Structures are given as C-alpha cells and as structure tokens.
Amino acid sequence: MVSQGSSPSLLEALNSDFLACKICLEQLRAPKTLPCLHTYCQDCLAQLAEDGHLRCPECRETVSVPPAGVAAFKTNFFVNGLLDLVRARAGGDLRAGKPACALCPLMGGASAGGPATARCLDCADDLCQACADGHRCTRQTHTHRVVDLVGYRAGWYDEEARERQAAQCPQHPGEALRFLCQPCSQLLCRECRLDPHLDHPCLPLAEAVRARRPGLEELLAGVDNNLAELEATRMAEKEALARLREQAARVGTQVEEAAEGVLRALLAQKQEVLGQLRAHVEAAEEAARERLGELEGREQVARAAATFARRVLSLGHEAEILSLEGAIAQRLRQLQGCPWMSGPSPCLLPQLELHPGFLDKNCHLLRLSFEEQQSQKDTGKDGAGSQGGDETQNRREDGIKTEKQGGIQPQRRDGAQTPKEDRAQTPQEDGAQTPKAERAQTPQEDGAQTPKEARAQMPQEEGGALTPRGGRSNKKKKFKGRLKSVSREPSPAPGPNLEGSGLLPRPIFSCSFPTRMPGDRRSPRITGLCPFGPREILVADEQNRALKRFSLNGDYKGAVPVPEGCSPCSVATLQGAVAFSAGARLYLISPDGEVRWRRALSLSQASHAVAAMPSGDRVAVSVSGHVEVYNMEGSLATRFIPGGRASRGLRALVFLTTSPQGNFVGSDWQQNSVVVCDGLGQVIGEYRGPGLHGCQPGSVSVDKKGYIFLTLREVNKVVILDPRGSLLGDFLTAYHGLEKPRVTTMVDGRYLVVSLSNGTIHVFRVRSPDS
C-alpha cells in the first residue's frame, strides 16, 4: 500500500496486481472504470450486469449501467497505457526465440525482419542494428529516442518510454489522442476533431491538463486531509477499544472480588445461623431428656401402685382387701394429687426469616453503569476512569463489612417488618433505598452467581464501573438504559428457559497464533478455514495464493500445493481430497496438489462458498442463490434452491456450512438472514431479527449438537443460534480479543477456530452444557 502523500512509482504499478482484473484474475482486457474508480474487464462487467444495475465486487456499491451497455463506461486510458508498456516489454513477434525487426519487412525484398537489438521509444518499434542506425540519421526520426533492447526489456527505460507514450483513439486506430473538446469533455484525435467537433472549442491535451490539474490537486489535498483525519479517528477508536478492554478487565476483577466477598459474608452468616440452630436444638433436647426421665419415673411408680391395687381387688379375700384398704386408698389419693403435666412442655420451633432481597427478583447487588468515554487528554488530567472504579470497589467493601456486622435483617412470616428493620429504613422521595440499605442486601436466590459464573458472563457486559443500585456519582453521566450504539449493544437475552440455567455452550480460550510465514510476500487474507485431519486446520490465504496447514496449537505443518495462478477462496476437506473455490471455478485436488477435476461456476457471484457434506464424499457449493452438490468424480449429484423455486433470485448465500444432522446453514446477504434448510432445500428455520445488529451475517459453523455459531464482523461478535436458527445469545465478543473476525470453522465438533482480518487465528474450546 502506498503511504499518504507519496507518489506510486511506475515499477510498482507494473509489478503489482493493479493491472489484473479482480473478477477473472487475468490481465485487464478492454478496461472499463466504474464511478467508484474500480476497473475491470468489459466482458467481466457484462456478465455481472443484471436489470440495468451491477454491484462492484470490491466495494459492493450499486452502479447503474448506461443504456448503451457496459461499453459506455469510461475507458481507462491510464491502464491501457500501462498495459501497452507491459506488452512491449514482454515482446511481440519472435523468430527463433528472438524479437524481429519491425521495419525490415517494409523494405522491398525482405520477407521477414532480422533480429532486433534496439527499440525506438517514440515509434514503439523493435529495430535491427541496421534499421536503428538508419533511424537515427533520417530527418523525420533523428530526434527519436533509440535505446538498447535488452535494457528496455529489463525496465531501465520504463519512465522515459512512459513519457513518450501517446494514448490511441479507440475509433481511429493509429491516431493518437491530441485534443480535449471542452463542451463535450471528450478526448479527440485529428480525425475526431474534424467532425462533429469542428465548431467546438478544443484545447491541446497539455494545455487542458495544465488548466485542470490544480482543481484535481485541490480535491486530492482535501481527500488527503480526510485520510489523515480518518487515520487519526481510527487510531483514537483503537485506543478507545484498548481502554474499554482494560476497563472491562478491571471491572471483571471487581465483579469477581465483590461476588466472592458477598459469598464469603453469606457463608459466614450461614455458619452462624446453623450454629444457633444447633445450639437451640441441643438445649431443647437436654431439657426434654430431663423431663422424659422424670415422667418415666412417675409413670413407673403410679403403674406399680395401680397394679398392686388391681391384684388385691381381683385376687384378695374380703378380710385381706379390708385390711389393706386404708393403705391402698391413701397411696392412690397421694398419686392422684400429684401435679401431672397436661401436655408437653412449651418448645420454641425455629423458623427461617429471609431478607426481602432474597424474594425480590429486581434486586441486584451487582449492576453495571456506563459512562461516556473521555478523550485521552481529559483522562490524563483527572484519571476519572480508574478513580471511579476504586471508589466503587471501596463502596462495595463497605457494603460487605456492613453485612458481616449487622447480618441479614429477619422478615416475619406474615410479611411484616421487624422493629429493627422498620427503624433502619428512611423514607425516600420515590421509594428508593439508600445506598447503605442497598449494600446490605444479599443476592436473590435465583440470581446469585458463583465467581466462575460471573467470569463466564462478563463478556456479555461492556465497559463501565460497578456502583450500588440507586447510588449516584457526581463525576459520571449515567445511562439508564442500554447503550444505543449498534456496535456495543448486547444481543437480545436468551429465552426464559435458558437464561441463567447454564444450558448454553461456553467458550474456553485455547491458543492464538499468526498465519504469516517467512515466505509470504504479503499480509495474509484468510478467506477459508476447514478441518484437516486430527486436530489440524487448513487455511486458505487468498492474498498469498496458498493453502496452509496448522495444528490447533499453532504449529505450521506445511502447505497443500495449488494450481498455478489460483487464489483459494473457500475450502473444504473430503475423503483424501481438498475442494476449494477460486474465481469462478471449483477445484478438487489431492493433498499433494494433483488436480482431479475442476468445474466452471457462475460468473454472477464474486465468491463461492464451499462446504463438505457430513459423509465426506460430496462437496456443496453456493452458486447464484442455489446450492450445487458434486460427488468425488465431479458429477453434479443434486441442485436445489433454499425455499424452492419461488425463492429463485432472492437468495445470495455468501457463507455456507453443513451440520452433522445433514442440514445446510447459510448466510444470505440478499435477505440479510441466516437460513437453515434440509438436503431437499426445505427451509427449517430462518433468523433475521435484531440480534444481527443491522449487520450482514458472516461466516457460520456448527458443532456436534447442531448449535450454530454466526460471525458478525462489524460488531466483533460471534453469536449462537439453536439448530433451527433461533438466537440464543452472544458466544464471543471483543472482550475475548475479537477484532474484525473473518471466517470460522469447527474442528472435532468442539473447537471453534476464528480468523481475524489481520491474519491471526484464535482457538476456543466449546464447553457443552453437560460437561
């Protein structure tokens, strides 16, 4: 890339991809320039035009096609001139492997020219030594620049040849463009000047350029200023993102410490309450044992006396009964007069009384507040960001100490407050609790989190510092709702049956590694990923025209050779073979690079997504809104349109993958949705809801249970959907280090591999809910 303010050299323009068409990847032929200043072959543009419009394959801008067709787009004479220079350096007519003289055949008696040793830069002709000497001596050509042909072919005279090069008129071959018609803004040769522009004011090209160059330079200077501002804004955005991540890490630590402190206080209160309960039960049991012993003794005495009296009455004679009658009556009256207990002794039964915070689902001990991010200068003056976090932590520690000292205030079973609790509350204007009372609350039963759960949920919250609910800070401007920026708005919460239940997969970071190798001439641009053997991945680097192998630990395993000139886009592995798309072709090659077959695809699509079927013996490719499936022999096995023929022309599957259940999952840029369909094209589910944040859906991957992982590049997220395409929530965010994620793949059904735009790869292990 040419830096701002510097001029690109001619050598860079000739040796770069500037002269290659980004559609056919060949040298430009009849170059036409679109209003967005991107240049393509005229024939390639004709194949992209539909209904009077076409979309630029690079910037995706929609352009109206002129009524006369794509031929009416402006011809890029600049590119034509460079192409003429490249063709001249490559050589034209050859004889016995050497260039031939262009003037010898014009002389009588010579059927073919001799070997050329020089070149005239003005005539653009190769000359033999004799013709070169004569060229320098004639009156008409003695001012021409004749140079050595070997040096010319080596590029020594490119700049000088470029200065002497003249643009040719497309209507009159052999005539150079010399004039500019001012009313028509059209370039003219001498023939064009005669009719119909004879009466129009015209200027020589040099004079016209001198008149118009200042205006173009002024516009260019304005764009340079805009570029400088954009670069400064981009750097400021990166710095803001870095500060956000730093603050998020700090807040995450505060959340963990605060949650652990609350849990410690709660556990301490648990032990205290259980100790009180044990002491009460032990004292009650001791008193009950004493009462039981006394009752058993009294019962035994009374039972013995009653048994004796009953025997005397039933077995004794009259004289015996009468003789004992006095003693028995006295004893029985004595036993009847004892103070018997009518019932059990009063026993205090323990009851658990919960704080109102346990029963209030709207009570949160941990909440996030958001503040406007200050500029770096303002931050350097007062350091408000870090101080706010420290003050919040101090307030949280004070709240924890209050809980330890005062304990949880009891609540009576009938809902009334205890006197102690009633005295502790102070009336508020709107009924809100004071910060102190707020800090005294404990987490609700269904909202309490362990530190591990708090860490797992931190990526779903962005920025900000912790403050007690209802607390206010004079240094911060609060946002009562969610942030309205699309790039920072969290995804819609999962359904009630999944929220906080731990039923969703969670990411566990494994490793990160770059994909640029020492032999790469350019920065990698990863356009495709797929599994390749056990714990390996295959990376399609379109910029370096390579298929690279890496282990999941980041070890480079070599490359799979690709055919000459191919730039792999999307890639998939089959049984002992590799399938990939490049341009408008689908290739199947062996791991050693042998081409087994290739098939031509539609030119109306800039790129084609490739996915391997679960059986491993067929490959699917997206082509112009439908899906084609080929077998290992290259024969078309099936072809379908997601949603049936009624959807023809309404789909544009830019990314495609398959699930272990045999379904297809694609990112539809035409409908701006994620579509799930079976092998026959019947749509099972489709999502186009607010969880996409207005972005075009990106790369898709599916794990072994059918969960769909969707990349949203513009907001630096990977969200998760269920097997039928319903949004469940965020899986990866910028908190996990995502910066412009590009493509993903699933390895072994449990490793999600994510590539970034800078060529870095992150590997995450997908932790299933039941593991």
Automatic annotation (TrEMBL):
<dbReference type="InterPro" id="IPR000315">
    <property type="entry name" value="Znf_B-box"/>
</dbReference>
<feature type="domain" description="B box-type">
    <location>
        <begin position="164"/>
        <end position="205"/>
    </location>
</feature>
<dbReference type="Pfam" id="PF13445">
    <property type="entry name" value="zf-RING_UBOX"/>
</dbReference>
<feature type="compositionally biased region" description="Basic and acidic residues">
    <location>
        <begin position="411"/>
        <end position="424"/>
    </location>
</feature>
<dbReference type="InterPro" id="IPR047153">
    <property type="entry name" value="TRIM45/56/19-like"/>
</dbReference>
<feature type="coiled-coil region">
    <location>
        <begin position="220"/>
        <end position="287"/>
    </location>
</feature>
<keyword id="KW-0479">Metal-binding</keyword>
<dbReference type="InterPro" id="IPR017907">
    <property type="entry name" value="Znf_RING_CS"/>
</dbReference>
<dbReference type="Pfam" id="PF00643">
    <property type="entry name" value="zf-B_box"/>
</dbReference>
<dbReference type="InterPro" id="IPR001841">
    <property type="entry name" value="Znf_RING"/>
</dbReference>
<feature type="region of interest" description="Disordered">
    <location>
        <begin position="373"/>
        <end position="502"/>
    </location>
</feature>
<keyword id="KW-0175">Coiled coil</keyword>
<keyword id="KW-0862">Zinc</keyword>
<keyword id="KW-0863">Zinc-finger</keyword>
<keyword id="KW-0597">Phosphoprotein</keyword>
<dbReference type="InterPro" id="IPR027370">
    <property type="entry name" value="Znf-RING_euk"/>
</dbReference>
<dbReference type="InterPro" id="IPR013083">
    <property type="entry name" value="Znf_RING/FYVE/PHD"/>
</dbReference>
<feature type="compositionally biased region" description="Basic and acidic residues">
    <location>
        <begin position="392"/>
        <end position="404"/>
    </location>
</feature>
<dbReference type="InterPro" id="IPR011042">
    <property type="entry name" value="6-blade_b-propeller_TolB-like"/>
</dbReference>
<feature type="domain" description="RING-type">
    <location>
        <begin position="21"/>
        <end position="60"/>
    </location>
</feature>
<comment type="similarity">
    <text>Belongs to the TRIM/RBCC family.</text>
</comment>
<feature type="compositionally biased region" description="Basic residues">
    <location>
        <begin position="472"/>
        <end position="485"/>
    </location>
</feature>
<protein>
    <recommendedName>
        <fullName>RING-type E3 ubiquitin transferase</fullName>
        <ecNumber>2.3.2.27</ecNumber>
    </recommendedName>
</protein>
